[in-house]
Amino acid sequence: MKKLKVAIMGLGTVGGGTYDVLTRNREVIKSGYGVDVEVVKILDKSPKRLADKGASEKLFAANIDEIVSDPDISVVVETMGGLEPAGSFIIKALESGKSVVTANKELLSKRLDELLSSADKGGSGLYIEASCVGGVPIIRTLTESMQANRVTELTGIINGTTNYILTKMSEEGDDYAYALGEAQKLGYAEFDPTADVEGFDAAYKLSILASLAFHTRIPLDKIYREGISKITSRDIAVGKSMGYELKLLAIGRQNSDGSVQARVHPAFVPASHPLASVRGSFNAVLLKGDFVDEIMLYGRGAGAHPTASAIVSDIVYCAGKDRPQKNDFGSKLANVSDDFPSEYYFSVSVLDRPGMLSVISGVLGSHGISISKMLQENADGHCAEVVILTHMTSERLFRAAVAELRDVDGVLSVGSEIRVIED
Amino acid sequence: MKKLKVAIMGLGTVGGGTYDVLTRNREVIKSGYGVDVEVVKILDKSPKRLADKGASEKLFAANIDEIVSDPDISVVVETMGGLEPAGSFIIKALESGKSVVTANKELLSKRLDELLSSADKGGSGLYIEASCVGGVPIIRTLTESMQANRVTELTGIINGTTNYILTKMSEEGDDYAYALGEAQKLGYAEFDPTADVEGFDAAYKLSILASLAFHTRIPLDKIYREGISKITSRDIAVGKSMGYELKLLAIGRQNSDGSVQARVHPAFVPASHPLASVRGSFNAVLLKGDFVDEIMLYGRGAGAHPTASAIVSDIVYCAGKDRPQKNDFGSKLANVSDDFPSEYYFSVSVLDRPGMLSVISGVLGSHGISISKMLQENADGHCAEVVILTHMTSERLFRAAVAELRDVDGVLSVGSEIRVIED
After folding, report:
1. Tens digits of residue pLDDT in A388-403
2. Which among A4, A14, A147, A151 is the top mutation candidate for probing chain B, defined by the most B β-carbons within 10 Å of its own β-carbon?
3. Residue B385 has pLDDT above 80, yes or no
4. Would you state the pLDDT for residue A377?
5. How far is CA A280 from the centre of its chain?
6. Is B262 in a helix, a strand, or coil?
7. Chain A residues whose beta carbon lies within 8 Å of the beta carbon of residue B305
8. B301 DSSP β-pair partners
9. Quick one: which of A246, B79, B304, B363 is 20 to 30 A from A131 by CA?
10. Residue A320 banded pLDDT, cuts 50, 70, 90
11. Measured between beta carbons, which residues in chain B are less than 8 angstroms from residue A2?
C-alpha cells in the first residue's frame, strides 16, 4: 500500500470538499487504487476554520514554510484561488520538489510559464484537472486520450453560471437581470458576477484547454471575449422560434494553416446540436480530432464536490507516477487569428416604409454577405423590426456592413448581433 | 525523444486503421507527446494484405514467434478479434514481457483472469481502451479520473449497430427488419447480426466496464441479457407518444449493500434524459459517483479510425509508464443480484368487454404493482389493446403478475414487455 501525505492550502468551498472526499472515501481509494492518502497539514487563516470543518486543529499550518519544510509531505493541494498569495505558495511548493494539485484557472492562465519553470526547477509535477470544468475529465482526456489525433476543434459550455442564467431565460422566459438574481440566490453566481457573465472565467479555461489541445500557447489576452449581459429574453425567444438555443461558448479551432481561433462569446446553436441540450449548471466540451471524429464530455463544471473529485483524482494519478507529469502545452506561441468566419443573427429597427428590406440586403451584399433567413416583425406603420440570419462571413466584413447599415437613412438601430454555430 | 517499436497482429479494419494513424500522424505524436512510434512488424495471413494497405511487405510476420523473439518490439497491438488464436498470441506476448494493446472485448470478457495472470508473469502491461466504446475514453476515465468516487452507476448506449437500428425505427418509423437491412447495407451490422442485436457485444463491454467501475469481477454469464429483435416500430411510436425514446441500455449499478446489478436490455428513457438524444451509430456512457455526481462521455463507439485512435492513445500512454499498467478490476467475484427494480411498459390484448381494465389493475395490485399510466387503443367492439406503464416494481413480481394476467379470462395476450428507466 502506497502512503501519500498531503497538505491542503485554503479550506474554502473546494478545499473543504477535498477534505470531505479524502476523509469519507479514504477506504474506497485504498481498496480500489492501493493508495492511502492522508491529509497532514491544512493552511488557512485560523485554526477555527479547521474546527468548523470537523478537521483536527493539530493539522493547522500558519504559513507555507511549515508545509514546504515537511519532508513527509509529497503533494500540496492549492484551493485558495486568486493570484496571490496562491502563486508564490505554489512556486515554493514546486521548487521544494512537491507535486502541486491546483484548481486555480486564473493563475494558470495568467502565469503558466512561471509555474512550469518552477516545476522544472524542482523536478515536480503540476496537476491541473480541477482547474477546468470541475468533475468533467477534460484535462485527462486531452493529455491521455487524444494522442492519436490532430485536434481541430474544442467547443465548450464551460461556465455553469452563465449556462444556468441562459437556461432560465430560454425555458422560463426570464429576463437577464431576474435570472442573474436567481443564480445569485442559489449561490451559482457571485455578488459581483463580472468574471462569469462577461466571459473571463471561460476565457481562463479556454486558454488552458486550447493550449493543451493544440500544443501551442494561447495567451489570455489573445482570446476574443464577449459576455452575456446584453442578451435579451427576446433574442432567445426569436432564436428559439428559428430552431436555435443560445449558449455562451468557448471555441478553439486549429485552422489548416496552423493558426488558431480562440474566442468566448454567446452563440446560437441548432436545437439538434449536442451542446444545445446541456442545461442549467451542467457543462460540456466537444472535441474533434482527425481520427476520433467527435467526442463530448458532459458533467458538473463547478461545485465543491465535483471539483474536489477532480483534485483527488489528480492526487491518486500523481501517486502512480514515477516521474512528474509533463503537460503538453507546447512551447511556441500560437498564431491567433483575430478574424474568424461565422454566421450572424442580428436585428435592425427601421422606419416602416417600402424598400427598406431591399436597401438592407443591398448593403449586406456589397460586403459579400448573403442572407439565409429574414423575419419582419411588429410593423406598425411607423417602425418595423427585421431579424436577419446571414450565411457564413468574416468578423471584419460583418462589422463593416453593420457600421454602414447604421448610417442608412431609415435605419433607426442595429442590435442583438449574435453569432450562429451550425455544427 | 522516446522511440517505441510496435507490432500489429491482424491488419483488418481496426488494425488497418491503427496502421493509418501511426503512419499519417507519426509527426503529430512526436511533436505533441515526444514519442516516436514505429510499426516494425505486421502479423497477418499473407504479405498481400500488407501490400493492399500500402505497408511494406518487409514488415510481414508469418507467425507470433517472429514477434515475441524480437527484443526491439516493446508493444504488441492485437486487432485480430475472436478468441483464438488471438488469446494464445496475447498470452505469448505478455509472458515474453511485451506490453499488449487490445481491442478484443470478447476475449477480455471471457478470459480476463488468464490474461491478467500472463501479464503478471511477464511483468507486462495490458491496455484495453479500444475494447470498449471505440474512441470514447471510458477506460481512461474509469481508471484515471474516478478515483475519488464510489461509482454507483454506469449506464450506456455501448452498441452502435442497435442504436442505429433503433434510431431509424424511431425517426423514420421503419420496422425492425428493414432498419436491420439498412444497417447491413451500410456496414454497421454484420451478415449474421446476432452478436449485436441480441446484446452479446454490449454484455462483453459491460462485463469489462462494470468490473472496473465497481472494482469487483462481473462475469459475462452473470449479466442479464435481452436484445432488440422483438421490438416493434409500434412499441417505439407508442412510447414516443408518451414522451420516451427506446434505447438498448447496458446498466451496471452498485447497490448500497455492495451487491451489483448488471444487465443489457431495451429500455424506454424520457426524452429529456441525456442518453435519449444519442442518435444513430453514436455511443455514450453515463457514470454516477458519490462526489462527481453525473458525467457522460459521448462519441463514436466503433469504426476503424475512432477505435484506432483509442489503440494509439494506449500505445502513447504505455510509453509514458515506467511500470506496467494495473487495471483495478478488483479480485473478488461480485455478488450479482438476479432481481432488479424497474418500471415497466407492456401491452395487453383483451376482449372488448366491460370491467377488463379493473380486472387487469386488480391482478397487478395483488402483486403489489401500481399503474402510473394506462392507454386504451383500437377498441373495435371485439378486441382492445391496453398499454400500461407501471410504477417501480421488481423483476420477479412483474413476471408473476404477467403470468397470472395471461390466464385471466378475456385476456388474449400480453406482450411488448419493456423496462422504463426514469433517471
Report:
1. 999 999 999 999 999 9
2. A147
3. yes
4. 79
5. 15
6. strand
7. 291-293
8. none
9. A246
10. confident
11. none
Q: DSSP letters along B111-154, please?
A: HHHHHHHHHHHHT--EE-GGGSSTTS-HHHHHHHT-TTS-EEEE
Give the residue from chain B lying closest to A278, CA to CA: B274
**Grid cell in block for residue B217:** 469481477
Kindly state the cell numbers that stand for B6: 510496435
For Cα atoms B189, B193, B199, give the angle at the middle one, nearest 5 degrees.
Answer: 105
Give the pTM. Answer: 0.95
Q: Is A184 exposed, middle or buried (0-12, 13-18, 19+ CB in 10 A)?
A: middle
Is B331 an 8 Å CB contact of chain A?
no
With cut-offs at 50, 70 and 90, classify the pLDDT of residue B12.
very high
Answer whether B28 sits within 8 Å of A274, measured CB to CB: no
Interface test with B, best of A214, A291, A296 (most B CBs within 10 A): A291
Rounded to the nearest angstrom, the gap between the alpha carbon of residue B249 and the centroid of all alpha carbons in its chain is 8
What the block records as the C-alpha cell of B145 is: 479520473
Is A312 close to B150, i.e. CB distance below 8 A?
no
Q: For A112-159, what is each residue's pLDDT tens digit? A: 999 999 999 999 999 999 999 999 999 999 999 999 999 999 999 999
Which residues have C-beta within 8 Å of that of residue B33, sequence separation ≥ 6? A147, A328, B316, B319, B320
What is the Cα–Cα distance from B335 to B380, expressed in whole angstroms?
49
- Asked whether residue B377 carries a pLDDT value surpassing 90, the answer given is no
Residue B332 carries which DSSP code? S
Q: Please judge whether A303 and B310 are an interchain contact, meaning their C-beta atoms are less than 8 angstroms apart.
A: no
**pLDDT bucket at B324, cuts 50 / 70 / 90:** confident
Q: Residue A120 phi/psi, 5° resolution?
A: -60, -50
Give the per-residue pLDDT at B197: 97
CA distance B393 to B297: 29
Per-residue burial over B77-92, b if 16 or more Cβ lie within 10 Å, else e, is bbbbbeeeebbebbbb
Q: Are B313 and B33 in contact (CB under 8 A)?
A: no
Whether A109 and chain B come into contact, CB under 8 Å, resolves to no
- Selected catalytic residue, list B92, B98, B105, B205: B205
Report yes or no: A299 and B294 within 8 Å, Cβ to Cβ: yes
Radius of gyration, CA atoms only, chain A: 24
**Axis-axis angle for helices A13-24, A304-319 (nearest 10):** 60
Average pLDDT over residues B378-392: 89
Side by side, the strands of the sheet bearing B126-127 are B60-61, B35-43, B2-9, B73-78, B99-102, B126-127
The set of catalytic residues of A is 205
Q: Find out whether B128 and B208 touch, Cβ atoms under 8 Å.
A: yes
Grid coordinates of A157 = 459550455
Report CA torsion sign: B203, B208, B212, B216: positive
ipTM entry:
0.94
Name the residue with higher pLDDT: A379 or B340. Answer: B340
User: How many alpha carbons lie under 13 Å from residue A102 in its C-beta half-sphere?
Assistant: 28
Is pLDDT of A12 > 80? yes
